[in-house]
Amino acid sequence: MGYETLLVETRGRVGLITLNRPQALNALNAAVMRDLHEALNAFDADKGVGAIVLTGSEKAFAAGADVKEMQALDFVEGYLGDFLGGWERVADARKPMIAAVSGYALGGGCELAMMCDLIIASETAKFGQPEITLGVIPGMGGSQRLTRAIGKAKAMDLILTGRMMDAAEAERSGLVSRVVAPDRLLEEALGAAEKIASFSLPAAMMAKEAVSRSLELTLAEGLRFERRLFQSLFATEDQKEGMGAFVAKRKAEFKNK
Ligand code: HXC
């Protein structure tokens, strides 16, 4: 199906979504949000998809929320319409999701990448929360997710000064899990996604759920939640297959059941 602002395809068991507003460095407007909702609904519902990669262009993953679209917004309109609230759908995706970031990931672009489960960056990536330079603050999770990802000192530095952080600093700070040469970015992200998609889908989805909940729960509650999920996986055929294959010294063939 055709999208106005995205290119969407499947490669094997991986769903690939490419932000496609090159004239605006993939600035995130209402149309991008609507299209992403649709694409994620379709991938979440598709048993043939085991993981999702979200990427942008070489120059920009996304240069932020669309400043031209929101410039004239007033408070009541923004409040009643819960402006930006709908972006949480991305964090609610149930399949593991990788952001492959090249170039600018600023403001809403950085926040969108952080809604994914892991970020793989090209050496050219630049992350930042420059909202302060526009007279506002992060509004799609930056003050919360960036702080949890890189700690208060670095998050305050980026959010209060509006400066950009390069890929090396982002990796050192724990925001990104891998940094690769620009021409290897998509290959690396698709490879990681394929790897994830080759495992049992219920196990991969529960692993995502467990790690995600760790940011919200107390340690005792988180440990209890993890243990329940772990125990519940013994109801799957894939657990019998995975452990049976290990014992028999053969490769597991997961059936996602
Ligand atoms: C709308 C944008 C845009 C944005 C770039 N463009 N970023 N349009 N919203 N966030 C448009 C430019 O207006 C321009 O359009 C075209 O994309 C190319 O951008 P240039 O600025 O000409 O490119 P360059 O000189 O290479 O500079 C790249 C850049 C710069 C450093 C990334 O574009 C930039 O600073 N962009 C804004 C970054 C930012 O402040 N993001 C945070 C947004 S606020 P024309 O038509 O002129 O060619 C945000 C809030 C989140 O995300 C939620 C809280 C409110």
From TrEMBL:
Keyword Nucleotide-binding: no
Catalytic activity: a 4-saturated-(3S)-3-hydroxyacyl-CoA = a (3E)-enoyl-CoA + H2O; a (3S)-3-hydroxyacyl-CoA = a (2E)-enoyl-CoA + H2O
EC top class named in words: lyase
EC number: 4.2.1.17
Source domain of life: Bacteria
Keywords of this entry: Fatty acid metabolism, Isomerase, Lipid metabolism, Lyase
A GO term, aspect molecular function: enoyl-CoA hydratase activity
Gene Ontology biological-process entries: fatty acid beta-oxidation
PANTHER family linked: ENOYL-COA HYDRATASE, MITOCHONDRIAL, ENOYL-COA HYDRATASE-RELATED
Function statement: Could possibly oxidize fatty acids using specific components.
Family from the record: Belongs to the enoyl-CoA hydratase/isomerase family.
Identification of the protein by name: enoyl-CoA hydratase
